[in-house]
Specification:
It is a single chain. With about 180 residues, the protein is an all-alpha fold. It has one domain. It is about 90% helix and about 0% strand. It has helices at about 1-10, 25-40, 45-160, 160-175. The chain starts with a helix and ends with a helix.
Length: about 180
């Protein structure tokens, strides 16, 4: 039929190959049917579905494992979040304790420094008093020395042998 139309249109007609009176598309169709029949006979579809089923099972297993891992990860995340919160509370408690301890140390240091200042002031006052006493004693010693020297000089000037004799007689008489 195609040949008649092609001849009427004035085109060159070529002979199409045939096999046992069958055209090329019919041969291809028969080959496909034979291939499908062999595949069904060798159970290829069951192999394909078995392979797909095993892949599906592997994928499901991987998905279940992923769900389990995700649940574990979320549990770990919650646990670590709780630990972080507890650590933050502990850190705040430590900071508060450190501040209280620092305040106590500061108060104690202020009291100790006031006591030390008072003690040093007393020591300084004691040293000053001791220096005053030493100075007074030194002044008294100089005064005694000066008085002794002056009295010697006065006695030497005013006492002569007659005054000594009179004094010695008075002492002897009093005995």
């Amino acid at each position: 039929m195609f040949e008649l139309l092609a001849e009427a249109a004035g085109e060159a007609v070529h002979a199409e190959p045939t096999l046992a009176g069958l055209h090329a598309y019919q041969i291809v169709s028969l080959a496909m049917l034979a291939l499908i029949a062999v595949m069904v006979w060798k159970k290829v579809p069951s192999l394909i579905t078995g392979g797909l089923d095993s892949k599906i099972a592997e994928i499901r297993k991987a998905l279940d494992e992923a769900k389990n891992l995700r649940a574990e990860a979320e549990a770990l995340r919650a646990e670590y979040a709780a630990k972080i919160a507890a650590s933050e509370k502990d850190a705040e408690a430590m900071i508060a304790s450190a501040r209280e301890e620092a305040d106590a140390i500061l108060t104690r240091a202020e009291a100790d420094s006031e006591a030390m200042i008072a003690r040093r002031q007393r020591l300084a006052e004691d040293k000053i008093a001791a220096a005053e006493r030493a100075a007074i004693a030194e002044v008294k010693a100089h005064a005694v020395t000066a008085a002794t020297a002056a009295s010697r000089k006065l006695i030497a000037e005013r006492h002569d042998g007659a005054a000594d004799k009179k004094l010695a007689d008075a002492v002897i008489a009093s005995l």
